[in-house]
């Protein structure tokens, strides 16, 4: 069986889709699963166990100059690569016009079908073309966690019962079980300013962790995040280190070797969940039910306008005592 996933972005959504790959592997061990994704996220998808082929696209960039000669040439190359295989099932897990376009472009084998969401779920974007293109549109319970949504859609599309155990299958080049570094990663950057935690809170929390014998790692993905990392590092002194900007594969490896992660609702925090690292996820909005962690050694902390340092610190101490 050849299966194509269409999940183009964003980082957190890509991570949330990985357990569906593991479910399919359990139900159909001989299945070939390919995945179409934006180029920036391809290094992470290549680390997902069970993904045979990653087809990269750059729709975000192409739409800036849709009629340009370079865009047309790159689209043709992408289309030819995508259509190299014929699929028994093409599953649009994104639910947007752009993912519907990709699903329609993919080649379906004789007897194969295109599957998609039939409805919007709470907190997620949804556009009607996804169901217009599909041969089968599947209605999902609207109030559902992002991970469960992808697992349920794939299970119903392919006719298997979603298993109980949750596995992400995210590979690293380090032995996570043997990693003993005393570094805690601060994931302070996110796509929306209103999801950020106050900078002063990061500094106060960092000082508590330093006093407890930890060092602080500060990744960044933009100039603004780098500047914030540098300010936090200056406040904490020699016990904090600003990381160089890394691709997603290298960043995943570096996080995997750390003692844990404290972060806002962002893609890097969701990578921490997939790695099953000790993790506290900070929410200024009551959306943890949809994207938050569920592991015993992971917690979400929610308050408006923002959780207190004490609340996050107590959550960190609680997961440190979890067997």
Walk me through the structure.
The protein is an alpha/beta fold and 323 residues long. The chain folds into two domains: 2-158, Rossmann fold (3-Layer(aba) Sandwich); 176-320, 3-Layer(aba) Sandwich (Rossmann fold), CATH 3.40.50.2000. Helix content is 39%, strand content 21%. The chain has helices spanning 11-27, 42-45, 59-62, 69-82, 97-105, 129-133, 146-158, 199-211, 223-236, 248-256, 267-274, 288-291, 309-320; strands at residues 2-6, 32-38, 51-57, 86-92, 107-117, 136-138, 183-187, 215-218, 240-242, 260-264, 279-283, 298-302. The strands form two sheets. Strands 3-2-1-4-5-6 form a six-stranded parallel β-sheet, with helices on both faces. Strands 9-8-7-10-11-12 form a six-stranded parallel β-sheet, sandwiched between helices. Helix 11 links the parallel strand 10 (260-264) and strand 11. Helix 8 crosses helix 9 (223-236) and helix 8 (199-211) packs parallel to helix 13. The chain is globular. 41% of the residues are buried. The mean pLDDT is 95.
- The CATH homologous superfamily of the largest domain is called Glycogen Phosphorylase B
* CATH class descriptor of the largest domain: Alpha Beta
Quantity of strands, as a count: 12
Number of domains: 2
Strand sequence of the main sheet, in spatial order? 3-2-1-4-5-6
Q: How is the topology of this model organized?
A:
Layout: E1 2-6, H1 11-27, E2 32-38, H2 42-45, E3 51-57, H3 59-62, H4 69-82, E4 86-92, H5 97-105, E5 107-117, H6 129-133, E6 136-138, H7 146-158, E7 183-187, H8 199-211, E8 215-218, H9 223-236, E9 240-242, H10 248-256, E10 260-264, H11 267-274, E11 279-283, H12 288-291, E12 298-302, H13 309-320
Parallel strand pairs: 1-2, 1-4, 2-3, 4-5, 5-6, 7-8, 7-10, 8-9, 10-11, 11-12
């Amino acid at each position: 069986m050849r299966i194509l996933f269409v999940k183009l972005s964003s980082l957190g959504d890509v991570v949330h889709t990985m357990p569906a790959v593991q479910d399919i592997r359990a139900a159909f061990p001989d299945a070939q699963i390919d995945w179409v994704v934006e180029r920036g996220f391809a290094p992470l998808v290549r680390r997902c166990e069970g993904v045979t082929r990653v087809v990269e696209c750059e729709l975000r960039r192409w739409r800036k100059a849709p009629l340009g000669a370079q865009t047309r040439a790159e689209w043709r190359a992408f289309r030819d690569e995508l259509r190299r295989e014929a699929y028994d099932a093409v599953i649009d897990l994104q639910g947007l016009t752009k993912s519907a376009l990709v699903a329609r472009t993919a080649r379906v084998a004789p007897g194969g079908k295109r599957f998609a969401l039939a409805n919007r779920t709470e907190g997620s974007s949804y556009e009607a073309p996804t169901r217009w293109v599909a041969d089968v549109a599947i209605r999902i319970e609207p109030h559902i966690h992002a991970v469960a949504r992808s697992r349920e859609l794939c299970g119903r599309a392919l006719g298997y019962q979603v298993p109980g155990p949750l596995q992400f299958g995210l590979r690293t080049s380090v032995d996570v079980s043997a990693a003993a570094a005393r570094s805690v990663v601060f994931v302070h950057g996110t796509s929306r300013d209103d999801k950020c935690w106050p900078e002063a809170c990061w500094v106060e929390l960092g000082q508590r962790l330093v006093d407890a014998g930890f060092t602080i790692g500060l990744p960044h993905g933009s100039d603004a995040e780098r500047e914030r990392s540098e300010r936090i590092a200056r406040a904490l002194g020699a016990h904090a280190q600003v990381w160089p900007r890394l691709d997603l594969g290298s960043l995943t490896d570096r996080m995997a070797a750390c003692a844990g992660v404290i972060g806002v609702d962002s893609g890097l925090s969701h990578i921490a969940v997939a790695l099953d690292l000790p993790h506290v996820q900070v929410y200024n909005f009551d959306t943890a039910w949809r994207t938050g962690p569920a592991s015993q050694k992971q917690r979400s902390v929610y308050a408006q306008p923002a959780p207190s340092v004490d609340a996050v610190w107590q959550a960190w101490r609680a997961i440190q005592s979890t067997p």
